[in-house]
Design goal:
The chain has 453 residues and is of the alpha/beta class. The chain has helices at residues 41-51, 76-81, 102-113, 128-137, 156-159, 186-203, 276-279, 327-341, 366-378, 404-413, 444-452; strands at 6-10, 16-17, 33-37, 70-71, 86-87, 91-96, 119-123, 145-149, 165-169, 206-212, 231-236, 243-251, 259-265, 268-271, 290-297, 300-312, 320-323, 348-354, 386-388, 391-392, 398-399, 418-422, 437-441. The structure holds adenosine-5'-triphosphate and magnesium ion.
């Protein structure tokens, strides 16, 4: 196939160059030049005129409402994360570290979908026999699942007749003949992705695209295609541990705070419904510095353990190391504890960790962080069946949070005995009072007195 005319464009300032340059001569940034195809201007315009009638503005009330057709993937946790099922014709990007289980998850979904639909697995990284070996190990064999071992995206079009779902494994391994740069470069990734998008939107085929995350982003990571995708999912977890978290960072068809929890086993990734083994430690309640908080993840609440450790600073500057909690939020809470409760941690290093790799970005975790820090400071453990949630203001007052009822319901379900809640949320708690000790908290100081009196 003849090469198209290409040009190198700076992703920062848009400057162009006929050759690749390590440094953009216009803005001076390094490694920003990516190859792009030059479309012949005149014919493109003519084609546009011929195919599209100019759109006309119409009142909102007259816009026809189309409901999204959603197909269940066969894995309930996955459906939850994408907003209640896979939307027809959408582009779903699944990013994650190498070896985390991206191909495994999508092989399972492809096999499930192939029960009622025609599915194509476009494997650019592994041979068909490797994919079959995996499918056999997972106990998934289906006649409707088509495998294609190919790296050139130009050949995919012919194979898509009658296909409803297509998996591309992975976007970094496919290339188009029209660009001379190697597979995985920013230009190739972007061009292949936009070609896939055109196919998806014009033919109504749903694409699952696997993308590798690289540390320094020297190779084109999924970041460069996030804006093209309808849904961007990240599959995360420690390689040594078997638990994986599926997180949505962008979703045009659902809530992005939804997470799915999976366990990696010999038989593939299995959704986890009992989270207590992942987000709560076994020795909970024996050591100081930990408390449980009901965290909201999308439409659900999960009980998650917040652990803290304080140790004397050996160097001049005390360290603050939060994992799963925002750094600035931790600094703010430390200031509130010092000023309002007399807990001065200025000469201590402070470490905070949220178990299971969950990120507590919502304000409702504030009270639990304060309680865990106070427990570390007084070196007194908090009972393992006690939970706390609430937003802490700079004045030390505890403010109401959303989903309070759901959070308490989760504590009841998990067998907790006591939950510290913002006093302003007490109105909605009446139906739980006979099942759990609900303690209203107006100020952080009150909570500390309640826990350590
Ligand atoms: N025989 C096996 N038994 C149990 N688990 C296995 C087996 N083979 C592979 N795994 C698990 O599957 C993981 C690899 O899964 P998979 O190939 O789906 O990951 P990936 O994210 O697609 O990797 P890559 O980046 O190489 O494409 C391994 O890390 C391992 O945990
Ligand atoms: Mg893979």
């Amino acid at each position: 196939m003849a090469k198209s005319n290409t040009v190198f464009v700076c992703s920062e300032c848009g400057a162009t160059s006929p050759r690749w340059l390590g440094r953009c001569p216009s803005c001076g940034k390094f490694n920003t030049m990516a190859e792009e195809i030059v479309a012949p201007a005149a014919p493109a315009k003519a084609a546009k005129k011929a195919t599209y009638a100019p759109a006309q503005a119409k009142p909102l009330s007259q816009v026809q409402f189309t409901t999204y057709e959603r197909t269940p993937s066969g894995i309930s946790e996955f459906d939850n994360v994408v907003g209640g099922g896979i939307v027809k014709g959408s582009l779903i990007l699944l990013g994650g570290d190498p070896g985390i289980g991206k191909s495994t998850l999508l092989t399972q979904i492809a096999a499930n979908l192939s029960q009622g639909h025609r599915v194509l697995y476009f494997s650019a990284e592994e041979s068909c026999s490797q994919v079959k070996m995996r499918a056999e190990r997972l106990g998934l064999l289906s006649d409707n699942l088509l495998l294609l071992n190919e790296t050139c995206i130009d050949n995919i079009d012919a194979e898509l007749d009658g296909v409803e779902f297509c998996v591309i494994d992975s976007i970094q391994a496919v290339y188009t003949d029209d660009l001379s740069s190697s597979a995985g470069s920013v230009g190739q990734v972007r061009e292949c992705a936009s070609r896939i998008m055109r196919i998806a939107k014009s033919r109504g085929i749903t694409f699952f695209i696997i993308g590798h995350v690289t540390k320094e982003g020297a190779l084109a990571g999924p970041k460069v295609l996030e804006h093209i995708m309808d849904t961007v999912l990240y599959f995360e977890g420690e390689n040594q541990e078997n638990f994986r978290i599926l997180r949505s960072v962008k979703n045009r068809f659902g809530n992005v705070s939804e997470v799915g929890v999976f366990e990696m086993t010999d038989h593939g990734v299995i959704p986890v419904t009992d989270y207590s083994g992942i987000f709560l430690s076994e020795s909970r309640g024996e050591e100081s510095g930990a408390i449980v908080t009901p965290a909201r993840t999308g439409n659900r609440c999960m009980n998650v353990e917040v652990q803290t450790l304080i140790s004397k600073t050996s160097f001049g500057q005390p360290r603050r190391m939060p994992l799963g909690v925002d750094y600035n939020k931790l600094v703010l809470l430390l200031a509130v504890l010092e000023k309002r409760c007399g807990i001065n941690l200025g000469s201590f290093d402070v470490y905070v960790n949220v178990m299971g790799g969950i990120r507590l970005n919502e304000p409702s975790a504030d009270l639990a962080v304060c309680a865990a820090l106070a427990s570390s400071y007084y070196d007194r453990p908090i009972d393992k069946f006690t939970a706390a949630f609430g937003e802490v203001g700079l004045t030390g007052e505890v403010r109401a949070v959303s989903y309070a009822e759901k959070r308490v319901a989760e504590c009841v379900k998990m067998g907790f005995k006591k939950v510290l809640v913002p006093a302003k949320n007490m109105k909605s708690m009446t139906k739980y009072l006979d099942r759990i000790d609900v303690v209203p908290v107006l100020y952080v100081g009150t909570m500390i007195k309640n826990l350590f009196k």
